[in-house]
Design a protein that fits this description.
The complex is a heterodimer. Chain A is mainly alpha-helical. Chain A contains 15 helices and 2 strands. Chain A has helices spanning about 5-30, 40-65, 70-85, 90-115, 120-135, 150, 155-160, 165-185, 185-195, 200-205, 210-235, 245-260, 265-285, 290-310, 310-334; strands at about 160, 165. Chain A starts with a helix and ends with a helix. Chain B has 19 helices and 22 strands. Chain B starts with 5 loop residues before the first strand and ends in a 5-residue tail after the last helix. Classes of the chains: A mainly alpha, B alpha/beta. Chains A and B meet through α1, α8, α9 and α10 of A and α11, α12, α14 and β18 of B. Bound molecules: adenosine-5'-triphosphate and magnesium ion. The site of adenosine-5'-triphosphate has 21 residues of chain B, from β2, α1 and α16.
Chain lengths: ~325, ~500
């Protein structure tokens, strides 16, 4: 395959993605005219920021071919931790720093257990996630924390605007820009991808593969903390179930994006999370109960992955060809 | 002439822009050992994959025993009596060799709850091993086996079928060593006597005269010649010229004319429990050091010990006279040691990625601009130049490595080695599956490298070691064997590596 063809294929996928966004947006707008209102669009931008940060973290882990199922637990624990720091009267930056530090330590624990001691990723992260979910009750026994939230200015992250866009969206774009540069324009990014796609060959090439796997979990936890921060800013309090709805959209965003745009990457995740957030917000506007929307998102995820997989496409093309052939034959007889 | 058991006419196959096969005509007769020859990328494996149902042809006809067939899955081919050992056999790594061999035919009945008859399996396995007596622990997980053992499992799997009419072997001897090769040839004789046709792909041209009855030559996706070995001998036909479409001289470059220079790498008393002991050698700039050893001789392990993958238990290593301790590939690369590993598909390449990604991978420092960015344009230029030097075909930087033929994948690993600009190059099995024309280029490249760096060539191909190296030694069961005086002759080297004796 030549570079030109590669580019053609990439742009075809990009166009397909844009068409899909237009299609989904159009369908939701038809079904619920309020979907295109300013309030709704602002909501989508805010939710996309939180979902997108969590999905970005997961992207690192998926690139090294692992899974992280501790996202909800980590979100709960760091939400309550940041809430506790704020309630104690500390400034916002300190709360954020504490959250990030705690997240980084948790990520390092999972990452080291998996990369250095060879524990299975799924089991380890489920365990770590459950422990974190339990620790979230440490501070208040499960009661919501809201003291000082307004004084400390965290809600500005939700409300303030810069150049016409919400601050949270700017945060998302900035973090994604850095991530894109690192993953797609530096040797660090090459090392991440090499580790995921052939760990032995990467090791033989002098890449510290275990370190990159551990780093992926650290990045995932830190991104989760940032997502949680935006959620706290939106709701103005910390509760143990904050972030319970972070994990499913993150997985859906990463895998749907990869399926549509041809491989796991920072931009693919951004695209995937845009689609997923549009759908989630559209559903909630239409009054679809939250307990169905997860199911619907999962269905769409499966459909998307199937529709964009090469094998499935081959099958479909085969079916179409067979039908065309049949029609041509019967036409010939008639 | 007997009626052909398998016949293909005008078979074609396209991969995107690459026309891998363009109108192949081919046939084999029952009880015939038929060699399939051609340079890397000629289309041999593609043709075999079509015959075995792994991929589908775009056009043409295939008949088995006179009846036209269309294979949609590997099962279809097996049911028609075509058993195949692919160039890179796919086995289930978590299962034992035994389970892999009988995968899908564990019991006579095919119900969901059909019991697996473990005793029966073991009995059948022993019967198989009696026909192909390789030293192999079938109860071991395939994931832990060496490349040779995996190949042997794949061969056993292929001959386990009941009513095989055609057995296809895609480069089996490129991973097997002298010893198993003899066993395989004996087995082929046995199968041939039963009337089974054997299609046999190899880059070792002397094997053709040793065991084949006839051969076909592929070039550029078509079959350009078919003749019997007797005809070829009578007509004094050069197989290499037929394959390349041009005349080729000696594949080995002339030896070094100047005496070797300074010692670059000195190994002293290297020991690794269970693998090798007491190995001491010196590699100098200006010469190629050859090490011949069969699988199990400790060759591969020794190379990995020097490269820091599995550091030795004991022994010292000096680079440019300075003692160093290399505990990881990173440290080895930083110190200027590069290993071209023996198992390129798992150790050498990220198969899902193109040359542009693989070539700079072992020396990202060279590709980096400052602390962060990458010099993308430079990287591309370097990759283009180096893949050109190794004659990568097709010369694409963006095709994933998995889309290249076996021999061309090896060339990408070589380009990666060149990019890393090391002081010491250790080549393990450097020309496995590489055709004769490209082999000549690779040997010339080694010679060129040896002017600037120390080059060590480790191989289980005695002719390769003897042909390319200025100085040789053998490894036998982890022990180093050197000539008493002077240098090894080819036969003495062979004896040293196989028997562990110095005959001289
Ligand atoms: N999956 C694939 N995608 C794209 N191109 C392919 C693919 N498989 C093979 N090719 C191309 O088809 C051609 C024939 O390859 P093939 O593997 O049949 O060669 P070969 O004769 O077996 O070579 P070797 O001796 O190196 O094994 C090559 O140009 C190769 O690059
Ligand atoms: Mg091949």
């Amino acid at each position: 395959m030549s570079g030109l063809q590669d580019m053609a294929r990439q742009s075809a996928r990009g166009l397909g993605f844009l068409a899909l966004v237009a299609l989904v947006g159009g369908a939701l707008a038809l079904a619920e005219p309020r979907f295109l209102s300013a309030a709704s669009l602002n909501g989508i931008a805010r939710h996309m920021a939180a979902n997108g940060l969590a999905a970005l973290g997961l992207t690192f882990v998926v690139i090294v071919r692992k899974f992280d199922l501790s996202i909800s637990g980590v979100a709960a624990f760091t939400a309550m931790s940041m809430g506790a720091v704020i309630a104690a009267g500390a400034p916002l930056w300190l709360a954020v720093a504490a959250g990030i530090a705690i997240g980084a330590v948790i990520g390092l624990i999972s990452g080291t257990a998996i990369s250095r001691f060879g524990l299975p990723d799924i089991v380890t992260t489920i365990a770590v996630g459950s422990i974190c979910a339990g620790l979230a009750f440490l501070y208040t026994g499960g009661r919501s924390i809201f003291q000082n939230f307004f004084q400390v200015g965290i809600t500005d992250l939700n409300d303030a605007r810069l150049l016409g866009l919400g601050v949270s969206l700017w945060i998302l774009l900035a973090v994604y820009a850095v991530a894109w540069f690192v993953m797609h324009r530096t040797r660090t990014g090459m090392a991440f991808y090499a580790t995921g796609e052939n760990q032995v060959a990467a090791h033989f090439s002098g890449i510290a593969t275990r370190r990159y796997i551990a780093l992926a979990y650290v990045m995932c936890a830190i991104c989760t903390v940032l997502a949680v921060l935006l959620i706290l800013a939106e709701s103005g309090n910390a509760e143990t179930n904050k972030g319970a709805n972070l994990m499913m959209p993150a997985y859906a965003g990463v895998f749907l994006g990869a399926a549509i745009l041809g491989g796991t990457s920072v931009l693919a995740t951004l695209g995937g999370i845009l689609l997923i957030t549009m759908l989630l917000d559209g559903f909630s506007l239409m009054g679809v109960p939250y307990y169905y929307s997860d199911g619907v998102i999962s269905l769409i995820l499966l459909a998307g992955v199937l529709a964009f997989s090469d094998t499935a496409r081959g099958y479909l093309a085969g079916l179409v060809a067979v039908r065309a052939l049949r029609r041509a034959r019967s036409g010939g007889k008639a | 002439m007997a009626a052909p058991v398998l016949m293909a006419s005008d078979v074609s196959k396209r991969f995107g822009p690459v026309l891998a096969l363009r109108g192949v005509d081919f046939h084999v007769e029952p009880g015939e050992v038929h060699a399939l020859l051609g340079i890397n990328g000629a289309g041999k494996s593609t043709f075999i994959k079509i015959l075995s149902g792994i991929i589908q042809k775009d056009g043409g006809r295939i008949t088995v025993a006179g009846a036209e067939v269309t294979f949609r899955t590997p099962e279809d081919a097996i049911r028609a009596g075509i058993a195949t050992v692919q160039q890179h056999p796919e086995l289930v790594p978590d299962m034992s060799g035994l389970d892999n061999i009988f995968l899908g035919r564990e019991s006579a009945s095919r119900g969901l709850f059909s019991r697996i008859d473990q005793r029966g399996l073991e009995r059948r396995a022993e019967a198989l091993l009696a026909r192909f007596p390789v030293a192999l622990d079938l109860w071991q997980e395939v994931g832990r086996m060496s490349a040779v053992e995996r190949e042997a499992v794949a061969i056993l799997q292929a001959i386990a079928g009941e009513h095989t009419r055609v057995l296809i072997l895609d480069e089996p001897t490129s991973t097997l060593t002298e010893v198993e090769r003899e066993d395989l040839f004996a087995l082929m004789g046995l199968l041939k006597a039963q009337g089974i046709a054997i299609i046999y792909i190899t880059h070792q041209l002397e094997e053709v005269f040793a065991i084949a009855d006839s051969f076909s030559v592929f070039r550029g996706g078509t079959c350009v010649a078919r003749m019997t070995v007797a005809e070829a001998k009578a007509g004094d036909v050069s197989l290499a010229n037929l394959m390349l479409g041009e005349a080729i001289g000696d594949i080995f470059p002339p030896r070094a004319e100047t005496p070797p220079g300074a010692a670059v790498l000195e190994v002293e008393d290297f020991c690794l429990e269970g693998d090798f002991r007491g190995i001491s050698l010196t590699a100098r700039k200006g010469e190629i050091l050859g090490i011949f050893g069969l699988v199990g001789s400790g060759c591969d392990e020794f190379a990995k010990a020097v490269f820091g993958v599995t550091p030795p238990d004991r022994g010292t290593l000096r680079l440019h006279g300075q003692p160093v301790s290399l505990r990881s590939p990173r440290q080895a690369l930083d110190a200027g040691v590069f290993l071209v590993p023996g198992d390129r598909r798992t150790e050498g390449l990220v198969l899902s990625r193109p040359a542009l990604f693989n070539v700079p991978l072992a020396n990202l420092g060279r590709a980096a601009a400052g602390r962060w960015g990458l010099k993308r344009r430079r990287m591309q230029g370097d990759a283009r130049e180096l893949t050109g030097q190794v004659a990568l075909h097709p010369p694409s930087l963006t095709t994933p490595a998995s889309g290249f033929s076996g021999g061309n994948q090896q060339k990408i690993v070589l380009a990666k080695g060149l990019y890393s600009q090391a002081d010491v190059y250790i080549f393990v099995e450097p020309t496995v599956g590489v055709d004769i024309g490209a082999r000549a280029k690779i040997y010339a490249l080694m010679r060129q490298l040896s002017r600037e760096a120390a080059v060590i060539v480790i191989s289980s191909d005695c002719d390769e070691v003897h042909g390319v190296a200025d100085r040789t030694l053998a490894l036998h069961k982890g022990r180093q064997i050197e000539p008493a005086v002077g240098t090894f002759s080819r036969d003495a080297l062979l004896m040293a590596g196989i028997m562990g004796e110095v005959t001289q």
